Input
Amino acid sequence: MSGYSVPQSQVGRPTAWWGMTILIASEATLFGTFIGTYYYLRFKTPTWPPGGIPEPKLVVPLVMLAVLVSTTVPMRLAATAARTGRLAATRLLIAVALVVQSGYFAYEVHDFSDQLHRFDITRNAYSSIYYTLLGADHAHVLLGVLFNLWLLGKLARGFTRYRIHAVQAIAWYWLAVNVLTIAVIGTLLSARA
Amino acid sequence: MSLRRLEILQWVGLLLGALVWTGQHVVGYGVTEAACSPGGTHWGIRTDTWEAVLMAAAAGCVLAAGLAAVTVVVRTREESYESPPPTGRVRFLAIAAITANLIFLVIILLDGLGSIFNVACRQG
Amino acid sequence: MNAPREDRRCLAFLVLAVVPLAGCGGSQNALAPESHQARDIATLFWWMMGGAWVGLGLVVGLLLWSWKRRNRRGFGRDVEGDKPGEKRSWYAVVVLGIVMPIAVISTLFVVSDLFVIKTTQAPASTTTKLTVQVIGHQWWWEVRYPGTTAVTANELHIPARTPVRVEVKTADVIHSFWVPELNRKIDTIPGRSNVVELDADQVGRYRGQCAEFCGLQHAHMAMYVFVDEPSAFRRWLAQQEKPVEAPSSALAERGARLFLDGPCSSCHAIRGTDADGYVGPDLTHVASRATLGALTVSNTPDDLRQWILHSQQAKPGNQMPDFNASGARLDALVAFLEGLK
Amino acid sequence: MAIATPPTPAAAERMERLEQIWESRPGILGWLTTTDHKRIGLLYFWTTLALFGAGGAEALLIRTQLAQPNQHVVSPQTFDELFSMHGITMIFFFIIPMTTGAFGNYLLPLLLGARDMAFPRMNALSYWIFLASAIFIYTSLFIGKAPNAGWFNYVPLASKQFNPGHNIDFYCLGIIFNSIASTLTAGQFIVTIFKSRAPGMSLNRMPLFCFAMLAASFGLLFALPALSADTTFLFLDRNVGTHFFDASHGGSALLWQHLFWIFGHPEVYILIVPAFGIATSIIPAFTQRRLVAFPLVAVAELLVVFVGFGVWAHHMYAVGMTTISMIFFAAATAMVVIPSTIQVFAWCMSFITGFARFKTPLLFIAGFIFMFVTGGLTGIMFVAIPFDQQVTDTYFIVAHFHYIIFGAAVFPIFGGMYYWFPKVTGKLYFERPGQISFWIIFVGTNLLFFPMHIVGLLGMTRRVSTYPSGLGWTAYNLAETIGGFVTLAGILLLLGNLFVSYFRGPPAGPDPWHGPTLEWTTSSPPPEYDFAVIPRVTSAYANWDPVDREADRLNLADGLLMLEHGHEQPTVTPVDGRLAEIAQMPHESPWPPVLALALALVFTMLLIGLYGVAGIMGLVCLLALAGWHSQEPPE
Output
């Protein structure tokens, strides 16, 4: 008997959600400065992309973006499933999301190295910020994939309040990464305007 | 006025001003950087019209936010900012919002004044 | 230097400034303006300093008042929330802390950033009569006069009472062209050319210094701006345009051959000979300059000799290696260089 | 009457169990694996004090070199490394970690009425990463390859072409390494302030120290990424061959300055705001009066950091931006002063309308107000763009920011050391030597920094390793050097006084000053579990509410609200402080030092250039993180 009347339903967000919000705020600011740098460098040179570099392709990146953003659905469903205690559904949804995300990541790594052959990162300022921005985004997708792998490992041993909060926090992380990816791809494709 | 509406007005008063000033600052500075740099002169951006529109819009929003904060403070004048939550906290943050919006308003007005009455794209 | 004006100005300081700005005899003094831009800035400073002393006086007054009221009874009384003098204090905070500063600082903003800046910002290209290019190198200034072949180093001659457009660029890192008595500073940024206007009222010599940290010898990267009467300036410029004549004496002749065959010509240029190095300053009229090494040493034969032998001692880390010449060869070289008027 | 003495045997038995649960392991292992916010605060305090000594030594060497014209006390190469390391040490390794790490960690849970931070193990991790980054950057000084392009490290001087050695790589990696620690601390404080308050403590009943720490944390969280991006770009430019800052390939040297100062100016407000927090804790105690205009001061502390994000380019007025671009920053610089003037007059009115007792802490705060107003007034002068273009990069600016940093950040730190000395050590300090140390430091700093205003206006530029005679600078530089050594004497007297008081000072009870906030309700030094009973809070000055304190004593007697079934701590809703849940807190874990060591290896490999090995070390870090999270709190 601690002397406190603790409310039954969850009031406010779990501290895990707050910790993830801090990480997302820091990473979003980092991407903000990267995107700000992109536009600052763009204003410096009349022709953009400069130095005979081909304009970024339109269709394929948008399709891949749609694929990645679609994984938000299973992740959100997994979060609600975890909150309502349905273990099997949570595991399945996270596994599905993981497969799609890993596929996305594999293709992006291949596409990244393929582009590197066409114009190297050391060509000029455009190539520098292009690959740094895209590489940073892929790194965060990789981190999300690792989060999901770790989650599946944990959920293999059943539910605890800690793991339910973890699923919600990582679903929130994936939502943020998808929004960031939309911003990054949007910035890179703005070179076509 | 119900507590729920007071609380909404308080959050509007506190956060709208900050958001609007940030937007006016980033877009206003971005316009001056874009219009005058080698990469952007061909777009033909008239900075003073942009800045005037930005100032008017931003000042309007900040005034609205300030008004919201003032109504909350007026409606809770029989409470003190030290009374128990939520009314005490609402009054406390509304008083804070009034100060914040006043400062944002002055910045926005000085921004507009300065960027309109100076020669566009002259290296300072 | 124009001594009488200087003394009167020093006296003015002592009266105005509570703290004596002693030692204002130096010639790099932002509060001894010699152009209308520098004067506007100095006047702005005196108004702001007056306001600052008033503000500080007000706060110190409040602190002293509280010192006088220290140790009053009532200390230790458990304060349940009755805040003595709260109403009055709120008025003081709002009036002194919000209303008054907003009014004062907004006025300062309008005066300085809408009016004074019109004189100190870069001039419109139509209003200036002469253009000078100044290029910052690691740790010296290259000075060029567009439209003529005149190139000199660390010394800038401009005609009095005429607006001069100075375009500053850099050959390596960021420097900052700053002559305090004439106008505000302007940085030299790679890849772009910045502009500042110099419009001196008085004939005289004004000292300036690089104001942006640029490496080992940032401290020894100063320059002189000589303001001459327009006629004297035109004579100077004509002399600077002339390529070098043949050396006068046999000793100077041997020195010239030493210079051209030796390592000197790979770094330095002398117009009229085939020495065209651009790492170091142009030496066509080096003898006409007041100092060597960007005001590191004065330009006398002995200093020139020491500079050639041990430049790394006077300015360690600069790009010119010590030159191990002995007696006769060194005398020939110095004789040749002294001839380059 | 403080709560330290247990009134009933039942309560004593429960406190014994609490003591037993929260007890940390003895010896070095206990310190290595500690997650107790008080121990981490002390670790931060001792490390930052040592680094303050290093920064001070660098400053005195600089002053000795500049005492007379054309001196050769140190070579230009050493001088460049000295002033760069002085700037980096004082800002990144002394003031930020001292105010947030030492004061913030030690005091925040005590002021909030909590038992520990929201993430105790992350708190330990931030200390060990901070320590590793300090060692990382100071090895550069010992092997003679310290950063030598100033604390703001402008490009192209810092690019590979003009700085081929490892000096600038030490700078880039050391700064990123340190920012990880600062970001973790900032995130920690934000979540702790919002989630781990005593139930009932809504935002309008939170002490002002917590508002200051919240403002500093938001500042750090949103400013450091700009610096990390900047130093990442520079590291890539130097070692991979990208062209972010290379003008000949489309890059821009100004890009470095913009990104640096987007971090730089919020940073200097982050230096100041915790000092405001310390001042607003000391003033009510020694004037026995609740601070004047509480909500205005609270919003002022948050506003100064928020508006501070919009002023960055006033450091770049001389780079040739267009006038209309500079206007935006001049306008924001004009209004960023208002929060400071609000606070200055709130403090002064508290002095006057309260019952001021000028003991040492309040003397330091009075000195702080004087120095801060002097520095602030010269700061207002930079609203005028033409004047700033005349004095930027001269000693006038050096005078301005030293008045602000030394006068307005270090004075409250010294005041805070005296004020909380009884609480941390349980001993009272000697008052007489304390006051003497204040006056020596006050005279020393003014003698050291005021002549810089004059010599700056006489045209002496920053960072010159020497200067010619005959320009009227010599007398002032000599006076500054003397002032430097007088300040050193004052600081040594201060430290000596505290050191002797630690051994021979009279015992201080739980509340020697009749202080306003919760840390004075528990014993000195506070037990491991901070509060035997989670305190009841109805105002921002909880120790001055006798009704609540009486309620605490009754709770203790009845054994209520003691949460003695494990490392329990209440978490609340962020704004109104209503109880959300009783959280189980992790306690003592070896993972923080392990992860910090792995990170240190990552940065060392990056420095050496073994990028493959750095990648492997990165994987080791991820494994350490997984291991860290394998230990879950009991259900």
Q: What stands out?
A: The CA atoms of residues 16 and 153 of chain A lie 18 Å apart. The domain at 15-47+57-192 of chain A is CATH 1.20.120.80 (Four Helix Bundle (Hemerythrin (Met), subunit A)).
